[in-house]
Amino acid sequence: MTVLVSAYYKIPSKAPHSRYVPWLQRFFRSVKAPVVFFTTADVGDEIQSWGISANFEIVILPFDELRAWRLGRDFWNRQKARDPEAYHTPELAAVWYEKKEFVARAMEMRPAENLFIWCDAGCVRDDACEAAAASFGCRPVTWDDGRLHLEQVSAKNISKEYYTYPLTHIAGGFQAGNRAAWEVHSLLYDNTLAEYDNAEVSCNSDQYIITSCKDRNPALYSLHVPHNSQGGGWFWFIFNF
Fold first, then answer.
1. Packing angle, helices 179-198 and 206-216, rounded to 10
2. Domain ranges of the chain
3. Whole-number pLDDT of residue 69
4. Hey, what CATH topology would domain 2-240 get?
5. Contact at 8 Å (CB) between 2 and 137?
6. Is the pLDDT of residue 148 over 90?
7. Which of 36, 179, 216, 233 has the fewest CB atoms within 10 Å distance of its CB?
8. What is the predicted pLDDT for the residue at 127?
9. pTM, 2 dp
10. Cross-strand pairs, 57
11. Structure-model confidence comparison of residues 156 and 11, the more confident one
12. R_g of the chain computed on alpha carbons
């Protein structure tokens, strides 16, 4: 069985909460696979008021208890000061870092399960994605191979020591793998994060850190280049995983 993992927090972000609500509602009414969803108590109450099915497990996790904050507020303030994308807040960067930690918590909660997909909470944005999301995480699994499967949204291969805006290569919105893949990836991610910080390059954006992780251990990752326009490329996994 595949477990989807996601999270949502009301934080200074790329869009106001009101913009995310319709996307969240689409997500909760369409997905049929088991979901572990992390959020705060107020958002949890709002979601419950919509009426949700039994496949969703809402986990209340206060924002200040995210493992990202173990690095310290100064760490994330330092990354923001270096980030060319000024709208990236420390809070948003902490959530992006936390994706692998949300999965780690879900793995602790579901010890009998082996396959986990991270998906951003705002990933179901239109009617086509909503229709496809009913099968997301329920399709036959071809990716239980010890690698972390990712979307390569740019077909052009690039290679740099460190990645920053405006380079686009690997998306962070969907990440699929078995326990072994997630565990190795998590350690590599933390080591790569430290390398960026030591080099005085912002490590706010998870897609840049993941791209560097792929460079450091190519065998750990399987990149999928969307072969059609499903989901606009960035949401291709909803139609295929």
1. 110
2. 2-240
3. 98
4. Spore Coat Polysaccharide Biosynthesis Protein SpsA; Chain A (3.90.550)
5. yes
6. yes
7. 216
8. 96
9. 0.96
10. 36
11. 11
12. 17
Over residues 32-88, the pLDDT tens digits come to 999 999 999 999 999 999 999 999 999 999 999 999 999 999 999 999 999 999 899
Q: What tokens does 22 get?
A: 């319709």
Across residues 184-207, what is the average pLDDT? 98
Token duo for residue 38: 């992390």
Q: Give the amino acid at 151.
A: E
